[in-house]
Amino acid sequence: MAKWGCVHGLSLGLALLAGTAATAQNMQDMRDKHDKRDKRDKHDKWIDVTAPLDPATLPVYTGDVPLTMEFKLDMRKGDKVTYSTMETGIHSGTHIDAPMHFIRDGKSIDQIPLTTFMGPVRVIDIAADAPAVTAAELNKHTWKGATRIFFRTGNSHGGGMADVHFNQQFVYIAPDAAQLLADAGVELVGIDYNSAEKFHSDVPRTHQILLGKGIPIVEGLDLRAVTGGDYELLMLPIPIIGHEAAPVRALMRKK
Ligand SMILES: [Zn+2]
Q: Among 35, 66, 108, 209, which has the highest number of CB atoms less than 10 A from its own CB?
């Protein structure tokens, strides 16, 4: 490598010594091109933060209808076509809760403008050992002014949304943090496990506070491959008419 580096250095030196402005310009052009490509690669890199719908890996909230898929017809077994069915709770995997989930006359998922789910999003990296995103925890971070906020918590330090064993001790968003977010006019909130609410809490305060303000909640995000910072979000819920939630495919890329 050293030898080639040396030869390369020599030819570079000679080219510069030759002193032709055109050569220097060509080299600058090449450098600019390279920088541009580097930037483009970085910006084109969409990260899929959707939990795969695979019964072997998907954690299902205690008491929810488990995800099952079945091949009714299968070409690998001699059928003329492959055709399968799926049964699942709508809140399995990565999904969006619409206000209707906990607000009696709240909007259903199809009534929320899609622009809510496209645009800048800030990922806040919560300390791995924090049991909940409380107001105090939230205020340790720069979050004010962000329109969409996703929390990457201790949930993402384990298997997260790819570990089939549902963890009842998952990190949730505490009502006092939800209140801060709602009061600040945040438009979308997300978390890296099945629910934003403390497991089996008597009153679903976090949901009531956010959904009560018309703020949809993204649950079941797989944020393991993401770090804190600002991203661009592209996320489109399936248009399930008149219902309280929908599965979603969620993509993010670093801004
Ligand atoms: Zn939900």
A: 209
Per-residue confidence band for 28, with pLDDT thresholds at 50, 70 and 90: low
Q: Is residue 123 domain-shared with residue 205, that is, in the same domain? A: yes
Q: Is 7 inside any structural domain? A: yes
Q: Which domain holds residue 217?
A: 91-254
CB 229 within 8 A of CB 254: yes
- Asked if residues 147 and 187 have their Cβ atoms less than 8 Å apart, the reply is yes
Model confidence at 36: pLDDT above 70? no
Q: Separation of 94 CA from ligand 1 center, angstroms?
A: 9
Q: Tell me the per-residue pLDDT of 100-140, one tens digit each, with 9 for 90 and over.
A: 999 999 999 999 999 999 999 999 999 999 999 999 999 99
Domain count, the chain: 2
Q: How far is the CA of 97 from the centre of ligand 1 (A)?
A: 5
> How does DSSP classify residue 181?
H
Instruction: Please tell me which residue, 3 or 76, carries the higher pLDDT value.
Output: 76
Whether residue 82 lies inside any domain: the answer is no
The Å distance, Cα 12 to ligand 1 centre, comes to 60
Q: What is the pLDDT of residue 41?
A: 56
Residue 139, domain member (yes or no): yes
Taking each helix axis from N to C end, the angle separating 205-212 and 175-183, rounded to the nearest 10 degrees, works out to: 10
DSSP state of 14: H
Of 91, 95, 101, 207, the active-site residue reads 101
* pLDDT confidence bin for 34, thresholds 50/70/90: low
**Same domain flag for 123 and 238:** yes
Å from CA of 101 to ligand 1 middle: 8
Amino acid at residue number 143: W
